[in-house]
Specification:
The radius of gyration is 17 Å and the shape is globular. The protein is of the alpha/beta class. It binds zinc ion.
Length: about 200
């Protein structure tokens, strides 16, 4: 298995996940990693659609460890009456519960929108190894857009951060959501958007 092109035989998203679930080793070249990142980002996009279905700003996240999705989350601050219920926090809580560990070492978090300062803080506390996000958030993004909390040397943990994976698709979901909401809801009855929802 070591020498083959992992994407030559994967064929489909489902086959990839089944293969990953079996723990089959794959070759980790740059191209392979980008392909994996896009596949997991598509799962995060599925989560964003779950948020949309509930009238929440569509942001989704998944957490992956050893090639397996161990947790998912989507933005739910309105439904939960909880300003901290961002997709990343939901996924981090689920992953920690599943692992029975407050540290999420060797985990990668995929999220469709650049994390805010709150979520970046949670990512640092959880010791998440790698963060992959889709669209940038010029209003509250804390991975370089407004601030870059992952580049502050005095913070003692530094996740590797990759941005812009399926950025167009991730941003388009948000744009369509807000366009639809403007069409269907008079302004004075709008739900408050999440602060980092690129409203
Ligand atoms: Zn956040």
């Amino acid at each position: 298995m070591q020498d083959e092109d992992p994407f030559a035989t994967i064929g489909s998203h489902e086959q990839f996940l089944a293969r990953a679930a079996r723990g089959v080793e794959v070759v980790e070249g740059e191209g392979a990693r980008r392909g994996h990142d896009e596949l997991y980002m598509r799962l995060a996009l599925d989560q964003a659609h779950n948020a949309w279905a509930l009238g929440e700003v569509p942001v989704g996240a998944v957490i992956v460890k050893d090639g397996q999705v161990i947790a998912t989350g989507f933005n739910q601050p309105i439904g939960h009456a909880d300003p901290t219920a961002h997709a990343e926090i939901q996924a981090i809580r689920a992953a920690a519960e599943r692992l029975g560990n407050y540290r999420l070492n060797d985990c990668t978090l995929y999220v469709t929108l650049e994390p805010c300062a709150m979520c970046a803080g949670a990512i640092l506390h959880a010791r998440i190894t790698r963060v992959v996000f889709g669209a940038t958030d010029p209003k509250t993004g804390a991975c370089g857009s407004v601030v870059d909390l992952f580049a502050v040397p005095r913070l003692n943990h530094h996740a590797r951060v990759v941005g812009g994976v399926l950025a167009g698709e991730c941003a388009a979901v948000l744009s369509r959501f807000f366009a639809e909401r403007r069409r269907t809801k008079p302004r004075h009855t709008e739900h408050p958007a999440r602060s980092d929802g690129a409203a």
